Amino acid sequence: MTHRIIDTHVHLDIIHEQGQDIAISLEKANSAGVEKILQIGIDLESSLRAQKISQEYQLKKQEGSSIPKVYYSIGCHPTETHEFPKANEIESYILENVKDENLSAIGEIGIDLYHTADSEKLQIEMLEQFLDLSERTKIPVVIHSREAFDTTYQVLSKWKDKAHGVIHCFTYDYDKGKKFVDLGFYVSFSGILAFKSAHEIQDAAKKLPLDAMLIETDAPFLAPPPHRGKRNDSGNMPIILDKMFSLRGELNSKVEEQLFHNSEKFLNRKAYYHD
Question: Are 139 and 106 in contact (CB under 8 A)?
Fold first, then answer.
């Protein structure tokens, strides 16, 4: 059976740096039924690369290639603290490309208290700057939140009904996920969903509203079993989808169709509660 899947968070450039050509990554994605991909920017340089990758492979697709369509985001990852001084430059780059339909999101941005807890205040300021930009441009945000639920939720709460987007690579429990959904955010599940120990995350995927969920690889990171510990790519998306099938009460066809629909809406800058 051929799936219809969208990988809503991938780092093709990092996969390339680790030894797998982007063309190969896209071929593997296509073979797995992945029709669209969101290439993520984590700083100014990688955001420039993300747009270039999107443009290059858009041309190949127009020439008849069967590879997935590549969208991109522009952002500043919360652990890239050395990039924070470039925030205004990154913001200008987003504003220059507001009308580019392949620019799907601002991000990834957010709060990380696992790697860089000492810069929490600066991370909050950065996140608020980009949430303000999201409100003005109506471009959704990709939120990275690691061991930082309270801070992330407090900041996002200030933008309820003003900014929207996705909590990517969700690693909290159902109650925390429901709070994000109630703020108007999608919740996205990565290969962690298939880890044997991920009971709280699996419980969240089982109970959260299906129309508020996305799936992703976060490749090259977080490869699902049986590839755990190896380089990840979009070719592993069916493993994540199959795990979602096992957790949900709906028909598999309904789950697949809804996740694809949600992901298309997100790529087209629409919140989950918008028609």
Answer: yes
Domain count of the chain?
A: 1
Q: Please state, in angstroms and rounded to a whole number, the distance separating the CA atoms of residues 23 and 59.
A: 13
3-state secondary structure of 196: coil
**CATH classification at residue 65:** 3.20.20.140
Domain interval for residue 71: 5-267
CA atoms within 13 A on the CB side of 126: 31
Residue 271 near residue 164, CB atoms below 8 Å:
yes
DSSP per residue over 55-73, as a string? HHHHHHHHTT--SPEEEEE
pTM exceeding 0.85: yes
Summarize pLDDT for 202-226 with one digit per residue, the tens. Answer: 999 999 999 999 999 999 999 999 9
Dihedral, 19, 20, 22, 25 alpha carbons, nearest 10: -160
C-alpha span between 22 and 14 (Å, rounded): 9
